Amino acid sequence: MSRRLAQRVIAGARARRDACASPFVLEGHVMACWKPSKHSFWIAALTTLLAVAPVAFAADGDKSTVKGLITAVAGDTVTVRDGNNVDHTITLTSATEIKKKEGLAAVRFERMQKSALIPGLPVTADLVAQGDQLQATAISFRADDMRTAQQVQAGVAPTSTKVDAMGKRMDDFGKYEAVATAEVMFASGSTAISEKGKSDLMELSKKAKDIQNYAVVMQGFTDSTGDAAANERLSKRRADAVASYLQRQGGLQPGRVTAGDGMGVAADAGSGSNANARKVVVKLVVDKGVNPDAK
Predict the structure, then answer these.
(1) 3: CB partners within 8 A, 6+ apart
(2) Cα→Cα distances 120→109, 166, 183, Å
(3) Which ranges carry the OmpA-like domain (predicted)?
(4) 3-state SS assignment for residue 125
(5) Which residue has the higher pLDDT, 272 or 136?
(6) pLDDT of 54
(7) What Å distances lie between residue 75 and 86, 134, 295, CA to CA?
(8) What is the distance between the alpha carbons of residues 116 and 67, in angstroms, rounded to a whole number?
(9) Half-sphere exposure (CA, 13 Å, Cβ side) for 239?
(10) What does the DSSP assignment read for 55-80?
(11) Residue among 98, 189, 190 at smallest CA distance from 143
(12) H or E element: which one contains 89?
């Protein structure tokens, strides 16, 4: 905390104490003024300090992360509003890394200039406290978010409705929504996909190709007959067979088809042989943050 800020807060508390040195009149009634003790005076001053300067107590070198929406940019100062509608004033330095992340997993990135930071862009900022400032060591954002923010900038002036909508997209990142589901059934002990199963998978592949930033996830199951460990291995092989078919015959990108999970015996398998339990459940999903129209 700066010495000047501390002095202003304590001076204000003393002024309020001195103002209560005599009674006052309120709507015709003489009112006695409460005279605080020295102990309560310092409690009031400390409470005021905590209220007006919550971040001022961060020691130099303290690290933190803020995730939010850029609301203003002025030179090397960026204002980011987080999910609790709290504004954070962030200072950029010559050492600040600005990265645009690419792809579904956001593991690839491109270094960007400060000019890439514009109002309406959801960002994640890694910060370090230096004096009264929060300096950014790194700021990252998704390529899709940058395109959306640029479109808003290039079209009409950003409105509060648009900024709020982009804030909701930021909150939705990582929340996957299923847009299509298929169940592929198997014969007892088999990993061979039936003709109906192949037809259902081709239909799902067709839907996937019409959707941006999709992913396909799947879980394999067995009935309750046989050894538990063997059933788990069989369920995994069934899921792998479906994943391979989607990539080779369905033409889906390998990076979009996740490795199948072998779940073993299905929860609804019951006892004995159950044809409905010998299956792979396949779901075509989208990230609601990337595809905001997903329901």
Answers:
(1) none
(2) 20, 7, 41
(3) 173-288
(4) strand
(5) 136
(6) 45
(7) 21, 15, 39
(8) 17
(9) 24
(10) TTTPPTT-EEEEEEEEEEEETTEEEE
(11) 98
(12) strand 87-91
What is the pLDDT at residue 28? Answer: 41
How much of the chain, in percent, has pLDDT values that exceed 70?
66
| Residue linked to tokens 């609601």 | 288
Structure tokens at 130: 């230096």
User: Burial of 51 by CB count in 10 Å (0-12 exposed, 13-18 middle, 19+ buried)?
Assistant: exposed
Task: Give the H or E element holding residue 41.
Answer: helix 38-52
pLDDT digits (tens, 9 = 90+) for 108-124: 678 899 888 998 899 99
Angle subtended by helix axes 195-209 and 228-248, to nearest 10:
50
Q: What are the backbone angles phi and psi of residue 93, rounded to the nearest 5°?
A: -125, 175
b/e burial code for range 200-232 (CB count within 10 A of at least 16 → b): bbeebbeebeebeebbbbbbbbbbbbeeeeebb
Counting every residue written for the chain, the total comes to 295
Q: Which of 251, 153, 167 is nearest to 202 (CA)?
A: 251
